[in-house]
C-alpha cells in the first residue's frame, strides 16, 4: 500500500472527524496489511477511536494479531488492553491464561501480564481468580519499582475470597515498594470497602 503514510497522517489529523469521511476507516484498516510495526500500531490506535463501534474493532484487531494487546494509549484513548478489559471482557480468556506475545506489534519471551485491576470489577469471579493467578507470576524481586507497586496493589484488591493470605504476605515483603503498596491498599480497603485500584498499564515479562 503505497499511500499508507498519507492515509495515516490524514486520519490522525482529522481525529474523530475522520469517521465521517466515507471509506477512510477501510483505508486505515488496509494499512495493517503493510506489516510495518510503527504504521500498524498507528493504524490500530486510530481505529480504536471509533465513536460507535469500538467493541467491533477490538475483536477484529485481536483476531488480526494478538500482539495488538501491547498497543499503548494514544489519541486521548486508553491502551488496547484497557479498552478490551472495559468493553469486551468476553475476549479476555487467552489474555488471563497468561501467554507470551508474538506478532507484528510486540514480542515477549515470557508471559505478558497486564496491570489494570480497576476493570476487574466488571469481570466474572472466574476471570478475577485467573487474573489474580496471572499477577502472582510476576517476579516482584526483579520487576521495576513502578511495576512492583502496581502488582502488589492489584493483588491485594483481588485477594478477597480467593487469596486471603496475600495481603499479609505482601505487607511483610522485603521489597519496600511492595510492602508500601500492600499497606496503602489494605488501609483504603479497611476505610472504604472498595476492592479495586485505578487501572494501570501492561507489563511484558
What does this structure look like?
The protein has 205 residues and is mainly α. It has 2 domains: 1-89; 110-205, no CATH class. Helix content is 49%, strand content 5%. The chain contains 10 helices and 4 strands. The protein has helices at 4-14, 24-31, 37-47, 54-64, 80-87, 93-97, 125-135, 145-157, 166-171, 176-192, and strands at 102-103, 106-107, 112-114, 202-204. A two-stranded antiparallel ribbon has the order 1-2. α4 (54-64) crosses α5 (80-87) and α8 packs parallel to α10. The protein is elongated.
Which descriptors would you attach to this protein?
two-stranded antiparallel ribbon, elongated, 2 domains, 4 strands, 10 helices, single chain, two-stranded antiparallel sheet, 205 residues, mainly alpha
Task: Lay out the secondary structure.
Elements: H1 4-14, H2 24-31, H3 37-47, H4 54-64, H5 80-87, H6 93-97, E1 102-103, E2 106-107, E3 112-114, H7 125-135, H8 145-157, H9 166-171, H10 176-192, E4 202-204
What's this entry about, in short?
With 205 residues, this protein is mainly α. 49% of the residues lie in helices and 5% in strands.
Q: Tell me which oligomeric state these chains represent.
A: single chain
Overall residue-averaged pLDDT value: 84
Distance between the termini: 34 Å
Quickly count the helices: 10
- Secondary-structure-based class equals mainly alpha
The SSE string, one letter per element, is: HHHHHHEEEHHHHE
- Total tally of structural domains: 2
Shape summary: elongated
